[in-house]
Structure formats: C-alpha cells, structure tokens
C-alpha cells in the first residue's frame, strides 16, 4: 500500500526541502497538514536547521506540537538531526514536552538509536532553571553567612563547605556522566 502526501503536505515539504522561505511566508506559514505538521515541524524532521531560526523570527512557535504531541525537538531527535536539535535547544525548545505516548525527545532519540542527539539532550537537561536557581540561592546564603558570622571556627567553615558540596554533587555527577558518555563514544 503506497501512502501519498496531500497537496498541502507536498507543498510544505517541497518548500522546506528547497529552502523557499518566501513561499512559506507568503502562503504556507501557519498552515498545517492533517497531522498538525507545519513548516517548522517539517524543517525539524528534515534537518533543515538553517531555516529554523528564520521561521521562529516570523512567528512560528518553537514548542508547538502535532495532534499526537510531537514537537520540533521530538522530530529532530528521532530523525537524528543533531544540528537541528542544537538549534532548537538554543532557541528554547522544551526538552520535557511529551507525545501522546508520554515520550520526551530524549526517549525518542534513545528508541531510534540516535546517540549523538540523546547525548546532546542529556547535557541540555543537566542545568535546568530550577537547579540554576538552587545554586544561586546556595551561593547567596553562603555569601550572607561569610558577611555576618562572628568568630567562625574551622568546623563552621567545614560545615558550610560540606553543605555547598552536597548541593552541587547531583549537578556535577550529571555533567561528569554526560562527559564520560561523549568520551567513550569518541574512543569506540
């Protein structure tokens, strides 16, 4: 059984494939096929990272999803388009978006053995806004302690050091694990 594309799917596909941004902007921008794919989703699926920022500048939404919940980042990751994954991450794509099956972009990269994309997504998820704010809070509280403490003992300083190390350990562990994955793959 041969499945053919609809006229709209074919038009979006051809324009994205050829990089014809003018036709997309003039008539296809915002249009979606029956699966909910627009020019940005198609560009991500095809690995056309060069036009992704241009589509976003013209109003495309980086985290828009198809009717089944696939985002541009899902599509780039499962098709193994590393540069497109990086571009989407730089532009604020949500690494935690889920499909109708509850799969995140990382899950799809693993399922389809797109290890470079999986590694990139792992490293992107290490320093989240929440962990960054936690680090800022810990550093601020340590600075306040240093400014306000009177006659600290060596034991006081060691306790403060232990507290900050305990806070940093999970983040450093993830970073180290991500770096080790990359190093092992390069050696293979």
From TrEMBL:
<dbReference type="Pfam" id="PF12796">
    <property type="entry name" value="Ank_2"/>
</dbReference>
<feature type="repeat" description="ANK">
    <location>
        <begin position="68"/>
        <end position="100"/>
    </location>
</feature>
<dbReference type="InterPro" id="IPR039323">
    <property type="entry name" value="ANKRD_45/46/60"/>
</dbReference>
<dbReference type="InterPro" id="IPR036770">
    <property type="entry name" value="Ankyrin_rpt-contain_sf"/>
</dbReference>
<protein>
    <submittedName>
        <fullName>Uncharacterized protein</fullName>
    </submittedName>
</protein>
<dbReference type="InterPro" id="IPR002110">
    <property type="entry name" value="Ankyrin_rpt"/>
</dbReference>
<keyword id="KW-0040">ANK repeat</keyword>
């Amino acid at each position: 059984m041969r499945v053919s594309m609809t006229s709209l799917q074919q038009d979006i596909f051809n324009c994205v494939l050829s990089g014809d941004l003018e036709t997309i902007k003039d008539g296809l921008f915002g249009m979606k096929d029956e699966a909910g794919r627009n020019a940005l989703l198609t560009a991500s699926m095809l690995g056309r990272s060069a036009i992704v920022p241009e589509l976003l500048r013209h109003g495309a939404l980086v985290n828009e999803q198809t009717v089944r919940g696939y985002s541009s980042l899902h599509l780039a990751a499962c098709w193994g388009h590393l540069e497109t994954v990086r571009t989407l991450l730089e532009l604020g794509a949500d690494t935690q978006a889920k499909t109708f099956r509850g799969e995140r972009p990382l899950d799809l990269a693993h399922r389809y053995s797109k290890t470079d994309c999986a590694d990139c997504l792992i490293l992107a998820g290490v320093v989240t806004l929440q962990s960054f704010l936690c680090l800022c809070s810990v550093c601020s509280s340590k600075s306040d302690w240093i400014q306000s403490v009177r006659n600290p003992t060596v034991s006081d300083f060691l306790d403060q050091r232990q507290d900050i190390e305990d806070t940093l350990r999970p983040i450093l562990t993830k970073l180290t694990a991500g770096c080790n994955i990359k190093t092992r793959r390069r050696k293979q």
